[in-house]
Design goal:
Layout: H1 18-21, H2 35-63, E1 65-69, E2 74-77, H3 80-83, H4 89-122, H5 128-136, H6 143-160, H7 162-165, H8 171-192, H9 196-205, H10 210-221, H11 223-239, H12 242-246, H13 252-260, H14 264-288, H15 292-305
Antiparallel strand pairs: 1-2
Length: 306
């Protein structure tokens, strides 16, 4: 059956949505990138990856050098530097100290930030800018200034608290302050993605106390932000050097610096191993964090719909 003049018959509804709602020809072509744009993106990615990966390959090449070979004019390749990592007692102690400080820093940071931020969102939202300002303040204070201000406190702790006050684990106190800006942003983004106040009020109306509400209701919904904050805290603690050095504590970076004066090959090997550990940890968090699987399934559907 024909319509008015100049109008053809409507096609039958098809699997793609029928003639009335099918996309016009050429729809979506505007999103396709031209060849110069793709070339520019490839060039940018090449420069970025080169900037990030070339130093790592240089560290790997240096740390695997063995004896010099006059015949070839090169070096034999050896993993002796990596095998010798655990033959230095000071290095082993520094690694253990840094890992213990990292664990304590993560627990201290979460114990301080999560209840405070949840309470602020639910009960006193007007204090949210104040909490944000206090958490971001360490970014504006150089590490050397923090050391000058806190050195008398550590001196008093070392004189009056014995072995506890002189332990490298006391660096946890200042590391919690240093990780606040990064951890706050990670947790805050997760709290903004959910209706924290409604969840807390619902749990409270069902008889749950505040500890149970935070641990069993809020925390499961912000696990991604908590994991991100933990990774950032671990990365910062493992890479911190200035404060540990000025306060004369043997941590991983301080021992690497001292070892570099005696055996640069082992020093570079330890530094590369620490970087690889941080990269693997970041990949594990982004790959296996809650919601990663659903995001991976959603991406092809969104591209198809587009």
């Amino acid at each position: 059956m024909s319509g008015p003049s100049g109008t053809g018959a409507l096609g039958a509804a098809g699997p793609g949505g029928g003639a009335l709602i099918s996309r016009p020809k050429g729809a979506g072509r505007g999103r396709r990138q031209s060849r110069p744009q793709l070339s520019a993106r490839a060039a940018i990615l090449f420069v970025v990856f080169g900037y990030l990966l070339l130093p790592l390959f240089a560290m790997l090449e240096f740390s695997t050098r063995g004896d010099y070979d006059p015949a070839t004019g090169g070096y034999f390749r050896s993993l002796a530097s990596y095998a010798a990592i655990f033959s230095y007692p000071d290095l082993v102690d520094g690694i253990i100290n840094s890992l213990e400080i990292a664990v304590l820093t993560v627990f201290g940071m979460l114990l301080l930030l999560v209840p405070t931020m949840v309470w602020t969102v639910v009960r006193v939202p007007r204090m949210r800018p104040v909490i944000e300002f206090l958490c971001l303040l360490p970014l504006a204070i150089p590490a050397i200034v923090l050391v000058v201000g806190i050195a008398p406190v550590y001196r008093w702790m070392g004189q009056h608290l014995g072995a506890v006050g002189g332990s490298p684990l006391t660096l946890t106190l200042i590391n919690i302050i240093l990780v606040l800006p990064y951890s706050y942003r990670a947790i805050d983004s997760s709290l903004r993605s959910i209706d924290t106040a409604t969840l807390a009020d619902a749990a409270r109306s069902l008889g749950a106390g505040w500890p149970r509400t935070i641990l069993q209701v809020i925390v499961p919904n912000i696990r991604g932000g908590i994991l991100s904050a933990a990774v950032l805290a671990v990365a910062l603690v493992l890479g911190e050097f200035t404060i540990s050095s000025l306060l004369s504590f043997n941590t991983l970076q301080v021992v690497i610096f001292l070892l570099g004066m005696r055996d640069p090959f082992v020093s570079v090997a330890v530094a590369l191993a620490a970087l690889v550990f941080a990269f693997v940890l970041l990949f594990a968090i982004t790959r296996f964090a809650p919601g990663a699987a659903s995001r991976a399934k959603r991406a092809p559907l969104e591209e198809t719909a587009a």
